[in-house]
Amino acid sequence: MKITPPRAGLAGLAAAGLIFAGCGSDGDATSGDAVQVLAAFYPLAFVAEQVAGPDASVSNLTQPGVEAHDLELTGQQVGRIASADLIVYLEGFQPAVDTAVSQNADGAGLNVTEALTVLDADEEDADDDHADEDDGHGHGDLEGDPHVWLDPTNMAAIAQAVADRLAEISPEQAEAFQSRADALAQQLTDLDQEYSIRLADCERRVFVTSHAAFGYLAHRYDLEMVGMSGIDPEAEPSPARLVEVQRVVQDEGVTTIFYERLVNPAVAEALANDIGVQTAVLDPIEGLSDETTDEDYFSLMRANLDALEEANGCNSP
Ligand SMILES: [Zn+2]
Question: What Cα–Cα distance (Å) separates residue 161 from each residue in 24, 177, 210?
Fold first, then answer.
């Protein structure tokens, strides 16, 4: 299910942006002198905003409530990509963005996977029947799992890559970008340590999710993710896959089937009902929604940690 914001909503956001820019202490901020950064979707926008601070303006191409995997660009957005100083994106995750960057913004793109080690997608968990029917909105171009931001150490690497590029664009602010990237990296290290400590001693290490978004998190903290559908959240799991998942739940004593906010929870709820286990939210943090506009990457990651700790019977020291 894709939620398309109404036209009025977009116009409202644009107007709000103009008003906000006009309220700055320096009226010239709207003159086009400010460094313009576009981020392809929420976690990248979060990093870019933290590193940019007041020294660059950051916009997110994926509106809140829109499923990031399915992003389609308006002509206006393609125009903004062509004129931005820096576009932070994840090649292979949103093909429309890849195309727009390669055709309109060569040289201004920062593909964050170049700063990271990309893990293989867990093919065992992918629903192959549906993968073959990919209509081009998936992320088949990336040979691997795109959900890099769910490992906090990857976010720190992205922050450094953004700081380096912003420093090239605006050398006089280089120290400010670097010091903000360092501060963010410290917060991410703290988060990483909380995860390591609180997930060290658990009754179970298996968790079941609606789409296979948590491969990096599982890899980092020695958990095992079982995704009902593969890395594309739109693909519905096959009946055979649901039988396999049910067997894992029963064999491992899994207590909870996790679902996510931006995707219809019907399949997760039906399966949980059938087996007699509960459901809870595990947020892949691909975007914010109406329910999470007051949240950010850190608060959502900590809510995910609470949920995993509870579901897996972990004993905090
Ligand atoms: Zn995803």
Answer: 28, 11, 31
